[in-house]
Amino acid sequence: MNFKDYTAKDWIRLVIGLLILVLIWYFRPGGQDSPKDKNHNPESSQRAQNSGSTSDQIDIKAFTGTNYQVLPKGQKIPVNFVRIVDGDTVVLSLNGHEFRTRYLMIDTPESVKEGLKPQPYGKDAAHRNQELLTNAKQVSLEFDKGPYADDYDRALAYVYADDKLVSLELVKEGLASVSYVNPPNNSQEKTLRQAQKQAKNAKKGIWSIPNYVNDREIYYPRIREESPMQTKK
Predict the structure, then answer these.
(1) Residue of 110, 169, 216, 222 marked active site
(2) Which position among 102, 142, 225, 226 bears the catalytic label?
(3) Would you call 216 exposed, middle or buried from its count of C-beta atoms within 10 A (0-12, 13-18, 19+)?
(4) pTM for the whole structure
(5) DSSP characters for the chain?
(6) How far apart are CA 98 and CA 107, in angstroms?
(7) How many CA within 13 A on the CB side of residue 49?
(8) Is 222 among the catalytic positions?
(9) Residues 13-34: pLDDT tens digits?
């Protein structure tokens, strides 16, 4: 048919047909790319919702090595493991800054204290601490509800080797006692005490030596002054 022979009705039908084709193309799956959709990645959004406590949601740029207050409490913060100091103290790194971290609510026998010979199971605790963190794919730090640090600017926190709470593993194996419990930095106290009871009943590690740990959970001979804060190592 020649276009010259088209009637008004023919032109209307042609225009309507073209409009239908355009609408079908426009509303096809994935056919709309609004500015919002172009920047939206459902997969990455889901990861962000599920992660909850990853470094993507924690602003670590403000951390300078001792200003722990800029970091959130109750969230696992990915950090880099640098080295151990002994069984209950480690050096970690965040945002390029190294800092010492003292494990909350546990105490291990001395292994490197100046002027003192290593105490029984002190080196074992240090070795196990090293082993757990060295073999971990991800080391994380978590602050409790109380003070961020002690009098020596050491972070007071829970440290995780992957999904394992390092202090709990040490207590389970009889290489640490539950000590220096200072609310509200004691969210894990019940868990730690349950593990200690089991290790004590099984006479593991430090509990295999009669009277090695006294009623105040301090190793004998006593070498520390009693203090609400952990003493420096």
Answers:
(1) 110
(2) 102
(3) exposed
(4) 0.70
(5) --GGG--HHHHHHHHHHHHHHHHHHHTSTT----HHHHT--HHHHHHHHHHSSSGGGS--TT--SS-GGGSPBSS-EEEEEEEESSSSEEEEEETTEEEEEEETTEE---SS-TTSPPPTTHHHHHHHHHHHHHS-S-EEEEB-SS-SB-TTS-EEEEEEETTEEHHHHHHHTTS-EE----TTS-TTHHHHHHHHHHHHHTT-GGGGSTTSB-TTS-BSSP-S---SSPPP-
(6) 22
(7) 6
(8) no
(9) 777 877 887 777 777 765 554 4
From 100, 128, 142, 154, active-site residue: 154
Catalytic residue check, 226:
no
pLDDT digits (tens, 9 = 90+) for 63-97: 999 999 999 999 999 999 999 999 999 999 999 99
| Preceding amide of 118 cis, omega within 30 | no
